[in-house]
């Protein structure tokens, strides 16, 4: 493909008469061509600025007097073969498409919930990174696949617009992707410390206020970047058919003030990401004193993946700043040297996604890590208290843990119907018919007492001993007291019994 399809106005060739012209062996009505403002250009096209047709080699269109065309081929068809830009677009587009599959796998792995969700640490917080990765990869795939026809089109049309649009749209998505990764890493460090001691970090200190305002500031900056670079006229990038069009139309549109402001805003968002990482290291990792001590602490505590992706993001932001001032570096130029946009534009973003995919495959789900940490802390606490847990098979319902949900529901229904599960069938109580039980009424078997008779001193002493014994053994109080009576009260005495009876001491008129 030539660097440019140089286009100049040409006069209509002569025909059979003054009202006709012959173009590529086809006879045209010259009056109709001039009426519809058609002009022949030196790049073998005929156009009136709304329609454009090829008029060389096998392209032989015909126009009727009413302005309609037959057998016409538009100027924007893929005419040339795939060049270097097309091959690079296929390679990067395929890589971005494959990354979407691995991102979905990691999203399923790290987005699952295994413990009760805490209001302070929402599960969606660790999913946002993968959502933005899907967005950035989709934009990269669309941008690359639509860029295949940029080298193939005879004249530039929609392909370069779509490639430039989604290439620019990748920047705020990539910024948000890296931001969510850095922010969530700090939240993950806090969650591990709070899980050990819920009162280790208060909710109303400077740290909390900083973590509240930083996301708002970042997304405001990212939205400004989107607002400065996306809502604009993209038709100017089609006008690159001559050097004059590139210089006067495409270059000013690619390096205008909105593009420069968007690049500067992206750099500000990058600094906010770096500050967020420093904030997390300061509050959730061990502090070091001295210059070299802080460097050693940073190398020890800073995650490798975050350090790498921040460096790669800096490369992409720097390329955006350079291309905002130098038109020869931007992908919006149709004959740009592809090493600039693909090596410094697509390359860092694809490398960031690959780094996240690799570490997402290596790292474990955070809920599972929390469960393992709790288990280890429980073992340590049991060791301190000299407690030994019984093995799992010690439980009589050990087999129930392997049952499915339907089997557990059937066991619950069995409880309602029979009062016991199948595992306790052998222990079900048998039916027992209860009969009347004969109980002894001690109050009736005790002889009645005579309220008008005094007891002798021996009986009083015996009753006192019985009372002491009753206090020592309350269960024997009633029986011993009953046996201590003389048994004469309330009976009809005979003459022999009266003779043998001991004399009664009369102390008052009541004893008579």
Automatic annotation (TrEMBL):
<feature type="transmembrane region" description="Helical">
    <location>
        <begin position="339"/>
        <end position="362"/>
    </location>
</feature>
<keyword id="KW-0812">Transmembrane</keyword>
<feature type="compositionally biased region" description="Polar residues">
    <location>
        <begin position="418"/>
        <end position="431"/>
    </location>
</feature>
<keyword id="KW-0472">Membrane</keyword>
<keyword id="KW-1133">Transmembrane helix</keyword>
<dbReference type="InterPro" id="IPR018830">
    <property type="entry name" value="DUF2434"/>
</dbReference>
<protein>
    <submittedName>
        <fullName>Uncharacterized protein</fullName>
    </submittedName>
</protein>
<feature type="transmembrane region" description="Helical">
    <location>
        <begin position="160"/>
        <end position="179"/>
    </location>
</feature>
<feature type="transmembrane region" description="Helical">
    <location>
        <begin position="212"/>
        <end position="230"/>
    </location>
</feature>
<feature type="compositionally biased region" description="Polar residues">
    <location>
        <begin position="489"/>
        <end position="512"/>
    </location>
</feature>
<feature type="transmembrane region" description="Helical">
    <location>
        <begin position="306"/>
        <end position="327"/>
    </location>
</feature>
<dbReference type="Pfam" id="PF10361">
    <property type="entry name" value="DUF2434"/>
</dbReference>
<feature type="transmembrane region" description="Helical">
    <location>
        <begin position="128"/>
        <end position="148"/>
    </location>
</feature>
<feature type="transmembrane region" description="Helical">
    <location>
        <begin position="86"/>
        <end position="107"/>
    </location>
</feature>
<feature type="region of interest" description="Disordered">
    <location>
        <begin position="414"/>
        <end position="512"/>
    </location>
</feature>
<feature type="transmembrane region" description="Helical">
    <location>
        <begin position="261"/>
        <end position="278"/>
    </location>
</feature>
